[in-house]
Automatic annotation (TrEMBL):
Domain TonB-dependent receptor-like beta-barrel: 276-694
GO cellular component: cell outer membrane
TonB-dependent receptor plug domain span: 60-166
Single GO biological process annotation from the record: iron ion transport
Stated name of the protein: Iron complex outermembrane receptor protein
Species name: Hephaestia caeni
Taxonomy, superkingdom: Bacteria
Pfam families: Plug, TonB_dep_Rec_b-barrel
Signal peptide interval: 1-26
InterPro entries (UniProt xref): Beta-barrel_TonB, Beta-barrel_TonB_sf, Plug_dom, TonB-dep_rcpt-like
Membrane topology: Multi-pass membrane protein
Amino acid sequence: MSKRFASLAGAGSVALMIGWAAPAMAQTSPDAQAAQHEEADSSLQLEEIVVTARKREERLQDVPISANIQTGAALERGGIANLERMTNYVPNLTIQPSPGVPSLYIRGIGSGPNNPAFEPSVGLFIDGLYMGRGRQTSGDFLDVERIEVLRGPQGALFGKNTSSGAINITTGVPTDERELSASMTGYVAGDKGIEATAVASGPLTDKLKARLALRYDNREGWLYNTAKDHHDPKRENIQGRLTLAYDPSDTVSFVLRTHLFDYDIQGDFFSTAPFGAKKTFTRATTPGVDEFDRGHGANIGLTTDIQLGGGYSLTSITGYSKFTYLRAVDSDFAVDPFFTTQFGESFWQLSQELRISSPSDGIFNWVAGVYAHRAESDNILAFSSISLGALDGTSRRSMDQKTDSLSGYVQGTFRLTEQWRVTAGLRGTVEKKDAIFIRDVTGSPPASWLATDLTGKIDETAFDPSVQIQYLTGPSMFYVSYAKGSKAGGFVAASTAVQQSGFAYDGETSQSFEVGAKLELFDRRAQLNIALFRTKYTDLQVSAWDPIANATLTRNAADATSKGIEAELTARLSSPLTFRGAIGYLDAKYDDFPGALCLYRQTAPAANCLENIGGTRIPRAPKWSASGGLDLDQPVGGNLHVTGNFTVSYRSGIFLDDNLNPASYQSGFAKIDARLGIGTLNGGWDVALVGQNLTNKLTSSYALGTPFAVNTESFSIDPPRVIGLQLRLKY
């Protein structure tokens, strides 16, 4: 990595020097020099980014949190259509697909994909609503204004299940003026198909505004299934969001968002390879055996803001969410028709948050609130069927789970002097869960497929404090922080092998120390943000696939530590050219993990083998991750401009399987994405050529030992080179 990083850093330094030197070389006289300098200073300054990471609008550079911000415009420039695509652009962030449910990781820590009932260690929030399941946000982004990736525990303000961090998504709001826009991208190589988005926004009356966003995706898939003679996974998704903003007076406002989605996926993205064989963009599964993932759902949120006078405000966020899905997997990942599985769930949640905020311009400002949450999974379903020699049977598992959570929080910032600020926060949470797990088997299944029914109850209390000290000098800010996070305990769903003693697992906690700086340089033409962190996890929840028992095991690791550094640089090199770069170094290890599945050493571990794997690196946590790129916006002629984006992303080598099987090791790689377009200066139209993974790197983000197939490994295969043509219109 050192040579590649040195090259990237060197290229960035040269670009910075050239960009800052160019305006000076163009000046010819003292008067002209002064005039040009004044004009350049204004035009070359970076735009301020406003975030809501602390429950109120603030400049990113004033917030003492390591945060990566992706604006809607940046997402569109980079062709980042979903969270999985963000992995290449945000250091120390990993979005992991799997046969079960997708998982989020920040700084190497997250919740594994093998337990459908797992709540994430990385909390996901959309317009202030907590999304406790990945299926609540199925599909690609729709009309996103901004995504905030908040690294490190966020328990004090965002609550439980943010022990590793939070992803805070803000969507578009109705505009004062009428706007109509549409975009369509036709993909002609790699993952053929189309994606189309349309947005209409504006006032309906003098007090009521509306915004309607629609999106349709139809893609062919990128893996050629040699046994079925078609590409997988074929996806067809449709979603829409209606946002209404009503302002009955100058002091009261309501925003109602209704988001509906429906998706249908045929096939899968997993491919199997014998040990030592190279992965390919092909797969072979059983003809006549369906693989699908179908679901639909709704997210509804009502935000009420009331100005109380004197700068105080009261905010209410009421949310309702539901989804239903069913997924069928050819679980042997091969042509032989001997092992299939289905997963499904019917879920709903209801939440209510009330908070009051003080004025932000006083010596002391604060925010306080309460949050209540009720969630039910009426049927977390799993059905497995096997026909392999003497093994011939089925297993049907169904779990019902209920969750009630109540918390209160407060955070205040005291301005000691013009330079010094101290912020302290605390959240207390009470959470109760209960579950019933029913299992039936027929025929002669494997001995590990149990038929016992299980029940469990959890009653937990958690307190999550945080403290930040900031020092402001000129345009820069330095900070130190401490934060505690927690994640609730839970139950093992879908497992054929879990017994009553292992049905429930404990909650996890994290404690993090961070030192950082947010620097504005060269008259705000550049921003450099740096953070050094160390996070200690206790009772870390780990869900791992056991290829020997062919079952998922979820348990608590005793201790783990994640430490490292993150740095992000944005610089305006010249009026049309902006450089963006980010790098992360991560050292994430289990400190002590007794009772873990044995690691792979030369040969596969024996059945029922357990050991203490303390001291080993956590899988799927690259030591180095980085991205760097240039954004171009160059006027040409009288009414046109050329726009472009070029990005290189890098990830160092990792093990993809929990047992550190050498067959799952993925060497470091770099990927290149680019976009080049031309359009009118006022944004009326533009057309662009977009390319992702231009060097056609074959990579994977997850692997597991292939069920009932010794000496083979199955991988989730990332998309290859994808080329498309994009057209955008705006009125």
